[in-house]
């Protein structure tokens, strides 16, 4: 059996293949559901929440190499539970999927791992913090974390230090994802300094930069009609940051969080944040928008977001676009763009 | 004018070089008339008959049947002419061995889409073949086979009947009776008849005679 | 018009049912042999593919413990966490089935059952259901049948199987994924107790068994060629006989294009009917032969093959394609000739496939060209493809040359003969040759194929039996289940037998090639029984002085090594003292002294032992081992038993070969029969003068029979060297290219004599009926020849 197919299936439980990312919108029988006004406790909420169906530890970083070039890096661990039941060893319903990527201005390296929960091959512990799948690891305290991943043609070995607080999105971490009220728990740590070495076919590159960790868990994050999303995490040169997403469906649904340099936040309701496609590129045989006009008039933000490498295609079990971007306009800076559902 | 040939030339390539079989032949025939074509072996009489029957094309000259020029027709056109307008009685009978006598008699009429059961039955009867219809050609004598060929030719009521030594393979008595019935049937249908023969006795029984010598009308 | 014309054309077959039968039967037989052989091959291959896909056997490297013990699950996790993309496998037996546990998430592509291709299936497999997928021949309660799984095998999740076998946290092997990440920690640091077994890659079980399939394929192809000769003859004859009809039809006004289309359509229809019959017959042949083929392969190579045949759509497709294609090839020239045929000539049927004048010269030139090509290729060919091109050139060249050679021989005989009758006989035979030559070519190919394939199979058998004698020198072979049992076993048997010969092996790289290296005890058993292809003066003495090594032919050929070369085993340099034949083994093998083996590989402890003892004590010892040491009877193998088993396998191989031999010869005999029957009608005018001049009809009939047998004998005389050449190409070119070892070729004159008798019998039988018919031709028919002539 095709490993890709398995992964696709586990990433999209109970979904028909044709639904693609829309499968995230299906029902959540038996699993826990996010409730409004949550209270997160750290470090325990850094760990896994196995009674929810899906969860991820999603780290992206904008880097500059000692060669002066821009790079991007991704380290992601997805958890999905086949059933809400418990189980140990091989019968654990928890499945894990890791994605790692490095983007250069002219190349994009991707690799993927799959693992069973319950046997120690992959998992997340909160204290001490470690998220791992096979030899890939993201571990250690915020003040001194390490991050490693490797594929057949690339690898990286990084250290991270947090320079600011965790940031809760939506209403105290309760992030509504559709007009119908579907929601997830969602917090970020956007204030990581990161440094280390990228091992690429062209040679090793020493890099430094900023990383942004997203933590999200839920059991039914999308509305039934929603087919994909365009998600922006932008770090402006003035120290402020913007998280904004656009969920595409019968009617688009957007949310945004403006993060000030001191870590305080302003959450914006549906419609405040806008993203318009400006340039579309041919990527992996399909049209994908790679330059966007992003506006948040309430915060005076009116910028153009363009991909560092338009071909940042994640050729994984569930394919999507994920890559570093440059920001120009009312604000300048860099960031990451994720686009799903461009089948 | 049913049949008209003007200045017909035909040359064949042989091992000894080109051989001019016909060197400018003219003839004409009205419907209901009969014409005997006589000549020595090699005088070109069979060739002329083949040309008129659309089995071959002249190198030069014009052959028209009911005003239509055979030389100008393509293969399919000449095939159409052979099916419905012109009927040929061969010396070798040329029956279809895989078909019964009844099917052989009906064959060309069906091919031409001009099958008339009453007429075919009448022909079968007149030619004395009624008791033979379930047999196959190889079970018949030469005279009987030629009667079948005549019935086949006349079944679609062709406008023009061509006969190439029709009795050449038959003994004298048989030949005479076959000739009698053929002539009377052709006369009944009102078709024109052009018959090749080397027998002057036979030729004498037809309305007109032409003698070919070395590719020309003598 | 179409219907009337078609009735007239098709009426030919109604009036000549024998011809129709020839055409249909020839085509059907050709298709049947082809598709029957293909069916067997396809079924076998599907079984191997399933086996390979199920186990990753041969496709991927594997990690196993050198001592054969289970691998702890923690070791698996430690390897994954050190960057080793490996996937666990556990294996056991449940209710007579081989039960395999695997992890669908880490298993390399293609290894997991089809039933997992939906999420409900995955959930059922790994979490709630403990779902088992099994091959159709496995009867396990609740198992889901999956034809892609190897016969006799069932598959379940690792967790399910560990539970069923009561082996928690144990694994048997780790499959190494084809792609590994950068920065992997070395195996020694993580799991030094594991050793890596190299994938057999291109030389997996499928390739081994290809040796056998090669015979079958060659046979199938030759049979089809034989059949196509028949079809060509039948179609040619049908066209010739219908020339007059075609001419008449055209004269009566049927367009040429319509005629060509109708005849083409008619042949297509006949080809489809014959193809369908042929595929059906092929299926029957396969059903009949498959159990023997399955047994052969299982015994020879341990390849499991389900004994049941599935009617695969691909056979229908290829069978019909080959029938239609064959008819197309056979009919194309005839149709082309028809379309070019002038309306006014060619009314008289000509003799069948007359070869005369320029045609003969062209044919002779093509034949000579092909034979020259074959000769050049015989000197240069070194690949499987060129080997087959060589075969093709040789066979077609010889077939085309046959009528020319026969013509020359008959001409020579005619010149030398004195009597009136014999002069007439030779001249008449020569005149008849063109009509028979297609059938004789078919006979030539059939006989040559039979000579070639029997030579190959028999040579294989002879070699293999000698090889068995060498390898199975000990009277009894026993296998212990654990090192502890091995120790008590050795203690128990040592005082009871002449000598205990441990069989210890491990896989290493020698000259860059994966090689199983064995440690041999210093004993006369080896010195007395081992034969070498090439060797130094004192190979065993040198080996036991720890300075020499013995290697198999595969390693010698693969790494281009000869006696006297030095290779390293680990760090130890050793001189090659001998090279031995090692038939049916895909990879390299080598033998060193037991003492050196123990120094180099201290972890490897032997579990298998050869025991030398008087033969009559064997049964008693087996009983004692069972009761005293607790060794199951199945773990003790009587050498005589193995040999008998191996020979039984070969006898089954012979069943298959003999059956195909008989079938092919029958087809050729059929071709002769049909040619003669269709010639009979044409023969009457030729024979009538001889009859008129005083030969009796009985004499004529007898001469007809003698003529056919004589032509068969001549053909056989040419077929024998051709068949031997064919065998040589198969053994010395194709086999070496495909498998890396050359089989010595032996000659079997007695077999050839039998074959010759069989072929002559077939030809004689085929000629009998036509000769009888001729002898009974009513004088009236003979007289007709004269009366009908003008």
Structure in words:
With 343 residues, chain A is an all-beta fold. Chain A contains 1 helix and 23 strands. In chain A, strands 1, 2, 3, 4, 5, 6, 7, 8, 9, 10, 11, 12 and 13 form a 13-stranded antiparallel sheet that branches. In chain A, strands 14, 15, 16, 17, 18, 19, 20, 21, 22 and 23 form a 10-stranded antiparallel sheet that branches. In chain A, a hairpin with a 6-residue loop joins β11 (174-176) and β12. Chain A is globular and about 50 Å long. By secondary structure, chain B is α/β, with parallel strands linked by helices. Chain B has a single domain, classed as P-loop containing nucleotide triphosphate hydrolases (Rossmann fold, 3-Layer(aba) Sandwich). Chain B is globular. Chain C has 790 residues and is an alpha+beta fold. Chain C folds into 4 domains: 1-53 and 223-350, no CATH class; 60-198, no CATH class; 357-463 and 646-790, no CATH class; 471-643, no CATH class. Chain C has 22 helices and 20 strands. In chain C, strands 11, 12, 13, 14, 15, 16, 17, 18, 19 and 20 form a 10-stranded mixed sheet that branches. In chain C, strands 6-5-7-4-3-9-1-10 form an 8-stranded mixed sheet. In chain C, α11 packs antiparallel against α20 (697-739) and α12 packs parallel to α20. The longest helix of chain C is centred in the C-terminal third of the chain and has 54 residues, at 639-692. Chain C is elongated.
Quick summary:
The complex is a heterotrimer of chains A (343), B (218) and C (790). With 343 residues, chain A is mainly beta.
State the name of the first-level CATH class of chain B: Alpha Beta
Question: How far is the N terminus from the C terminus of chain B?
Answer: 22 Å
Largest sheet of chain B: 6 strands, mixed
> What is the domain tally of chain C?
4
Helix content of chain C: 55-70%
Per DSSP E runs of 2 or more residues, the count of β-strands of chain C stands at 20
User: Could you tell me the strand content of chain B as a percent range?
Assistant: 25-35%
In whole angstroms, how far apart are the ends of chain C?
35 Å
Taking pLDDT < 50 over at least 5 consecutive residues as the criterion, the unreliable ranges of chain B are none
Coarse shape of chain B: globular
What integer value in Å does the Rg of chain C equal? 33 Å
CATH superfamily of chain B: P-loop containing nucleotide triphosphate hydrolases
What is the structural class of chain C? alpha+beta
Unreliable spans of chain C: 200-208, 346-356
Helix segment tally of chain C: 22
For the record, the CATH architecture of chain B stands as: 3-Layer(aba) Sandwich
Q: Percent of residues of chain B in helical segments?
A: 25-40%
